[in-house]
Amino acid sequence: MRHRLLPLVWTLAFLLLAVMLSIAVGSVFIPPSDLWLLLTGNISGSLPEPLATYALIIVSIRLPRTVMVALTGAALGTSGAAYQGLFRNPLADPYLIGVASGAGLGAVIAMSIQWPYSFWGLMAIPMAAFLAGLLTVFIVYSLARVGRTVPTTNLILAGVAFGSFATALTSFLMLRSSGEIRRALGWLLGGASQSGWMPVLGILPYLIIGLSILLLSGHALNLLQFGDEQAHQLGLPVTRAKTIILVAASLATAAAVAFAGIIGFVGLIVPHVMRMWFGGDYRRLIPLSMVGGAAFLLVADVLARVVLAPQEIPLGIITALAGAPFFLWVLRRSKNQGYW
Amino acid sequence: MARKLILGLLTLTLVLAACAPAATPTTEPAPTAAPTVEVPTVAPTVPALTLTDGLGRTVTLTGPAQKVVSMAPSNTEVLFAVGAGSQVVGRDEFSDYPEEAKSLPSIGGSMGQYSYEQVAALKPDLVLAGGINTPEQVKALEDLGISVFYLGNPSTLEELYANLNLVAKLTGRESETGALVDSLKARVKAVDDKLAGVADKPVVFYEIDASDPNKPYTTGPGTFIDLLIARAGGQNLPGLTDAYPQVSLEQIVLANPAIILLGDAFYGTTPEAVAARPGWSKIAAVTNDRVLPFDDNLVSRPGPRLVDGLEALAQAIHPELYK
User: Fold this and answer.
1) Topology of domain B49-183, per CATH?
2) ipTM of this predicted structure
């Protein structure tokens, strides 16, 4: 038991480190002594300068951002692991069947409308992205269905084709619009466009539902690795299990994408790294990918903030720019080359 | 199964719609944000300022802003032009004019993302956002308890003057700005007077980017470049509908512009390079040696230098009037 939990302890320790880093580091340097004072002392009281400004930065900027990035990373890492297991394909990531391209299209359509400056006006874009992402998955699922079964290959092909269609439409709309290209591009490259606690509260319900289901799906995913027929003979209601996992993963991904934009690579590499390090048992891989995804994205976000400070680099660029070499390093070092 | 999924999707929509506003304090500032405007502690004699910004928001200041952060190059130029340069404490990464703006601390923005931490650390009493900023960015700063004024992009010179007056009110520089606006109007009138009675309106092609010389980007209706070319006695390429369209070389050859202005000269495009492009050599502007580098910042930033841009355009399009 102790041995089985060890990987989780390791990744949780890494996550804790990443959270601390994310709170401590930013484009404004906060001296460690002041940081310690603020984190241990009472923040709400009236503070002398510059502590008051530091407190504002930590409480209103870094803390919500840290939570948001961690949740996004957790959603993408978990969904990525689930998709890879579901499709039995090492190239699968949470965007494989069109959540991201659909959400991108929804977001760009919403951006082309001049919304009034109000709560709902600000919510219009994430809501459009969320719904369009889920709608895309639904359309792809319907297109891929053959009778009562959903063949995996059909799902991938329908997803890729529909995704290309949505992406092309998104690019077309972006080029047609005059002023919104920067905004749309920023969204498509990933990184929280909204700050504060609102996005956290917005995605939390969906992440709780989606990730809870996925955490309970480890056994089903293990069975699915034998192939649909074998899994069926082992007593798994295959189509139902696949649909539930697909819906749960898409729900979590769509919610994350709606507020954080399209952050690539996390959902692809985190499950692989976890698999290389700790083995392919999905009962462990799913929680490990959740924690690992959160930690990895937090580190990437810290880099995005400090590399060119005070400028910020879109998060989606950092995940691939820093993530790919890291992944290749892990791949080279992995003694277990036949891990998949 | 399909029906179940549709039902599920509908339920989700309802849940999202139902829970989102309940879970968040809608338009109220975040609980941590300190109220900024209510308590006039510093100078109770100064009357409070209440203005409506480009997003339709009502912005109230206790008095003229003394520490302003500019989020757009055009805003920085406006602030310095109205005489409030000494009140600017921060600027976005693109702000490079006037020269002294470059020495101010940057708050990022070159990749569409700003460092809100830097803004908070500068402790401005006003952030001047511009047309390149999004409502989300305005909201983020508002949530930090910072007063934000969104200066909408003007689409005519009259709206530019109105913007100058707005910024003058925000920074307490009304008297200087009156003189500035008068001089800008006089310079525009001088151009108008010079062009009065000029019947020849040569076709002008304004090049933004010709990375693909068969399909360069230009500007169309709704942009200041389009407006100012007409005002400077020229005419833009006919038949354009989008603001920043990509046009085919065939269309340019057909329109046969008498003048080509290289708004991309800053990025290294030269008249020689244009002449060397396959298919461009027969265009009137190229054969008559009327391909001219042009300072794009004069016409692409909606600030007071638009009038400089108008004068430069008039000289480029009608050099005979400026001999």
Assistant:
1) Rossmann fold (3.40.50)
2) 0.81
